[in-house]
Design brief:
With 308 residues, the chain is of the alpha+beta class. The protein contains nine helices and 14 strands.
């Protein structure tokens, strides 16, 4: 497989826990994704929507059936500030959607083409050599609506897509310009090396979702201390790709501008037997839609050091 990343880029990713690759998508690919996203929002029937809102707050994370059964569907989640106390939208639906998820990469041809059918994505997975046999899951359009696009607090992706051992890798594509005003991503460089995964987002036995601690209190305290540092904001242009290690801490601020910040993202994890993705995870594969393999054959670069 032809190499796409330079050794300097690979080293930078492993050092910082993330890597910005300018212009990864062509202008045509970027436009197609953005237009398709807006078309999906325009066409979905708000009248039958359960008004499921999306939040990442630890004490109020979304957990209804509309969310929990969305892993093999294309569904729409609303901004908290777009729905009043009676469940009515306070603005047009095009300005109310927080995100679309979570099987765009499987069900929609436009998104599938740049995800599972993209040789450049396969080359990146091969070059990073984080996985032997990666599978793709949890694809989303994140809209970050003007003035109400909610803050996403400090977190790492392996908390939400937990494997044993942790193996999550995020692909985050900017479809519009991302700036300090409309909620560009910020990262704590190197935190994937110093801050352990301390909790995981799970389905609760009584229904809904919540967080389960996976380390003793002293490790949790150490993690909180090591998570201190200066975040680096990464402004992006349309078509840029940000690779995100599953353990690196990152966040985004509220969109205070008059512009949306559309982005497309999906994730990879290692497949069994090298990593276990268990039934506690909120997103579950189904018999009709198992997680799709990214590479056509195992990554020999990782299996055998001679290929590195």
């Amino acid at each position: 497989m032809p190499e796409l990343l330079t050794q300097d880029q690979i080293n930078q990713f492993h050092r910082n826990g993330y890597l910005l690759i300018p212009g990864f998508l062509s202008a045509e690919e970027t436009t197609n994704l953005l237009q398709r996203s807006k078309q999906l929002i325009s066409e979905f029937p708000i009248e039958s929507h359960p008004r499921t809102k999306f939040t990442t707050a630890d004490d109020n994370h979304v957990g209804d059936d509309y969310f929990l059964s969305s892993g093999d569907k294309i569904r729409f989640f609303l901004e908290e500030d777009a729905v009043d106390k009676d469940g009515n939208l306070n603005r047009e639906k095009e300005k109310a959607v927080n995100k679309i998820g979570h099987a765009l990469h499987e069900l929609d041809p436009v998104f599938r083409k740049v995800t599972l059918e993209n040789p450049k994505v396969q080359a990146v997975a091969h070059d990073l050599a984080m996985h032997v046999d990666p599978v793709a899951l949890q694809s989303m359009i994140i809209c970050k609506q003007p003035e109400i696009g909610g803050e996403v607090g400090e977190h790492n992706d392996s908390t939400f897509l937990y494997t044993d051992p942790p193996s999550a890798l995020g692909f985050w594509f900017a479809l519009e310009r991302c700036t300090p005003l409309n909620g560009a991503l910020s990262f704590l460089p190197g935190s994937h090396l110093t801050t352990p995964i301390t909790k995981r987002f799970v389905r609760l036995p009584e229904g809904g979702t919540g967080f389960e601690k996976i380390v003793p209190p002293e490790i949790e305290a150490q993690a909180a201390t090591s998570a201190q540092g200066k975040y680096i904001l990464e402004a992006c242009s349309p078509g840029d790709l940000v690779l995100i290690h599953g353990a690196v801490l990152h966040k985004s601020e509220r969109n205070t501008s008059s512009h949306t910040r559309f982005a497309y993202t999906f994730h990879m994890i290692e497949s069994p037997p090298r990593a276990l993705y268990d039934a506690k995870n909120w997103l579950q594969p189904t018999s009709s839609m198992p997680f799709s393999h990214v590479l056509s054959e195992p990554n020999l670069k990782l299996i055998n050091p001679a290929f590195a």
